Every structure is written in structure tokens, then in C-alpha cells.
Amino acid sequence: MTVFDKVSNDKKLKIAAIDIGSNAARMQISTVLHDEEVVSFKKVEYVRFPLRLGHDVFTFGALTPESIDRTTKLMQVYKLLIELHEVEAYMACATSAMRESGNGHEVAGHIKAVTGIPIHIIDGQKEAELINNVVVQALDDRQFLHIDVGGGSTELNLYINRQKINSKSFKIGSVRLLEGKETKGAWKKMESWIEENVDQSREVIAVGTGGNISKLFNLVSKLSETSTTLAEIKRMKEYIAGFTLDDRINKLRLNADRADVIVPAAEIYICAMEWAGAQQIVVPDLGLKDGIIQLVYEQLCKRKKRK
């Protein structure tokens, strides 16, 4: 039996991922399942909390004492859940807000000192890579434009025949747009990148990841269990935009931290799809946390193999 088999066959093995984004911080704990040669991960715990770190960073350039305190408390909660679940290995990654914050590394050091959780502040390329590692499993041989919209940035990745052709991170995100803090010229740069890289002579299908597209997908009419049309996304965006913020929360039953960012997020997906000429979008239930889970598992296998 290989080390890989030993790790995979341990039914009690749990691993965890923490994703500290510009809008919310998420923690997922998964059990490793092994069916013959196929390894999969079953979610056993998922917690999401709306820290809205992007508000501080995109407005003031740094995290405020209040946000630092809230983030530290949340990491203490996550650490307790990790211990209660007897998680064997985990990783915490922070994205756009903390990497652009003037005190991001200082805050990460403070959180590690208080909670023992080391926070990896990753760049846009690494963020895209982690997401791509799981998204590629949902693709086929056609041309796909993967659009991942976060609170502070949008990652675009172009695939043909399951091979990544190119990728780029742009400082356009749902919280950044809400605050009116998008980088000058970012929209034009995104449009130009799409026009230069997407092969307009062949069909292109969008792939959407992120909390906002997942919520939009739950509300629209669907082509299949995992896909819908550009027209449906546009229709739902206009429908939601017609409600006040209070009505989005009380009538549409959107979380408060989703109700204000879902329309600007939808605009990013719509623009990217229109520029690419994509009329269909696939929305797999995957994201950065899933990429972190996979990376943690691979690293755990390597550590056990060295032993």
C-alpha cells in the first residue's frame, strides 16, 4: 500500500482551508474520501463571516484597529473549530484586501502570535492557480473563459482543451466597485486582455466562480444543473437592482453583505462575457477554499511520504 493510499483510506482524516477575502472570510473543514483510485473531499463544516476588510483597505489603505480585532477574534473561533474537529492539516490564505493593505503583513503576524494560525498573503497569480487546480476538473475540450470575481479583484483564465492558455488578475472587485475605488483604466485593461486572448472564431463558454455568481445562479432559470445563459444573468441583475437594499434583504432574503455587492459583481461577469462573446456560463460549486483544500492534501501526502 502506498503512502497515498494510507492517507486516503483514513476515514477520520480531516483537513481545513481558511480563505480571508475582501468581503468575507470562510473556513471549510473536509473529510478525505477514497473510492478506489479517486480521492474526493466531503464538507463537514463551513463557516462564513462578513469581515468586509476591503472597505478599510480600498478607502484608507490599511486595516483599522476595529477590523484587526474582529479578524483576530474570528481566527480564534476558526482555530477552536479546527481543534474540535481534530484537523490534521490546514492552511489560511488572504487575498486582495490584505495584500494591498499597508499593514497586512503586520496584521498577519499579530494574528499568528495570538492564535497560532499562520496566514499566507497570496498574490493574484497564486490565487488564480489554486482556483484553477479545481475548476479545470469541470472543463472539457472547448474554449472556456474562467471569471473569478472577488471583493477586491477579478481573475481571468483562458482554457482550450483543458490547457490554460493565459491568465491575468485585475483590480476590479465587488467591494472595490461598491466603494468606487476601482483602479483607473482597469475596465479597459480587462476588455483589451479578453479581446487579445479569446479566440473569437470559435465558441467560448464562461465559467463563473465566487459567492455572487453562485447566488445569482441559484435564482435564475438554468440550462442544466451547472449552467445558465448570459441573458438570464442580465435579467436577474436588473431584477435585483430594481429593489432597495432593505427589500433585497427582507423580500429577496439576501444576506446584508451580499445584498449590496451582488449587482456590481454581476456587472463584472456580464461585461467579461459580452467582451468574450460568451452566451453561456457554467457555475461549478468550487472556489479558492476548494483549491486550498486540495493543496493541503497534496502537501500532507508529501510529508507522510518523507516519513
Summarize the structure in words:
This is Rod shape-determining protein. Residues 41-293 form the Ppx/GppA phosphatase N-terminal domain. InterPro entries: ATPase_NBD, GppA/Ppx_hydrolase, Ppx_GppA_N. It comes from Nibrella saemangeumensis. With 307 residues, the chain is of the alpha/beta class. The protein has 2 domains: 3-123 and 289-306, ATPase, nucleotide binding domain (Nucleotidyltransferase, domain 5); 125-287, Exopolyphosphatase. Domain 2 (Nucleotidyltransferase, domain 5, 2-Layer Sandwich). It is built from 14 helices and 11 strands. The protein has helices at residues 3-9, 53-60, 65-84, 96-100, 104-115, 124-135, 174-178, 186-197, 211-219, 230-241, 245-250, 256-259, 262-276, 288-306; strands spanning 14-20, 25-35, 38-49, 89-94, 119-121, 143-149, 154-160, 163-170, 204-209, 227-229, 280-282. A 6-stranded mixed sheet has the order 8-7-6-9-11-10, sandwiched between helices. Strand 2 and strand 3 form a beta hairpin. Helix 3 packs across helix 5, helix 8 packs parallel to helix 13 and helix 9 (211-219) packs across helix 13. The protein is globular. The two termini are 15 Å apart.
